[in-house]
Amino acid sequence: MMTTTPHKVAVLVAGSWGTALASVLADNSMNVSLWSRNAEQVNEINTRHTNHKYLPDAQLPVNLRATTSMEEAVTGATAVLLVAPSSVIREVAAQAKPYVSEDTLIIHATKGFETDTLKRMSTVIAEELNRNEEDIVVLSGPSHAEEVVNKRPTTVVVACRNEEAAERAQDLFISPYFRVYTNPDATGVEVSGALKNIIALGAGLSDGLKFGDNAKAALITRGLAEIARLGAAMGANPLTFAGLAGVGDLVVTCTSTHSRNWRAGSMLAQGMPVAEVLKTMGMVVEGVRTTQSAHTLAEQYDVEMPITEQLYQVLFKGKSPKLAVEDLMGRGRTHEIEEIARATKENWLR
């Protein structure tokens, strides 16, 4: 009787989201190699099957193996999943390049822009691995690592212009508790995943100021309009923002205490300086860096993003959170539907 050799999948790196996605793959009987620079973390994963710093209450699959060797992790892998912070994604991709074969499927689940160049993550990865950007798969959607690793029902999207690549990624991840849809609009999915962290910072700030559910609902809704405006200007399909990677991820990130960005915003509302917030969190808060990138992108594309603008003032110019919210509420009158339609009209007419 013939047996099928399981796919080898390399996951780079072993943060909370990388570890959770590696667990999904291991549960699907994949041969998973989880890479980390931290030898103590690798030893903990391999001997105790835990990753206490990032997922303190999780028990990891015994067939999930970690390593500090990039060569060991990537060599022979049929798929490589990059889940490094946006600030180091280029460096990690460059380290992996010597061991990636031409037919290896490349997937990433990193949310943000490269600060210096304002490039999307798929662009950065494609440049470093010398790949066609349209073959890079993006995984995103409403998904907290803490829930995924504990097998709570979760639904995400894998986006790629190359339909075959998207379906290959879908086959790797889909499981009874992890449902996966495909989408050809990688640009829209990446923009949504990056910008929702900005709005989550604002939601945490609003909650920290005890402004209530009405204010947060408005923030989420108007935040989605900002995301759609910039996304459409960058070439995304507006319909993507009504899906899992858009409104789905936005809602979960803005309403859950699992969200790092929400927690960071709440701390800011208490008057804690940004540097202290980041130090206290002990993990990457992508929304802070992304706010700076989005502020510049809004200027480049001539897109109005008032929530992003006010958060930029709070994070980088010392503006008080309370005054920022007051200035948002005091903006001039506008028409809701016409405002969205102006930003997305060209896309609707295609």
Which key terms come to mind for this protein?
single chain, 350 residues, alpha/beta, Rossmann fold, N-(1-d-carboxylethyl)-l-norvaline Dehydrogenase, domain 2, 2 domains, 16 helices, 8 strands, NAD(P)-bd_dom_sf
Task: Give structural notes.
By secondary structure, this protein is of the alpha/beta class. Helix 4 (89-96) links the parallel strand 4 and strand 5 (105-108). The protein has two domains: 8-184, Rossmann fold (3-Layer(aba) Sandwich); 187-349, N-(1-d-carboxylethyl)-l-norvaline Dehydrogenase, domain 2. The termini are far apart. It is built from 16 helices and eight strands. Strands 3-2-1-4-5-6-7-8 form an eight-stranded mixed sheet, with helices on both faces. It is an enzyme of class 1 (oxidoreductase). This is Glycerol-3-phosphate dehydrogenase [NAD(P)+]. The active site is at 196 (proton acceptor).
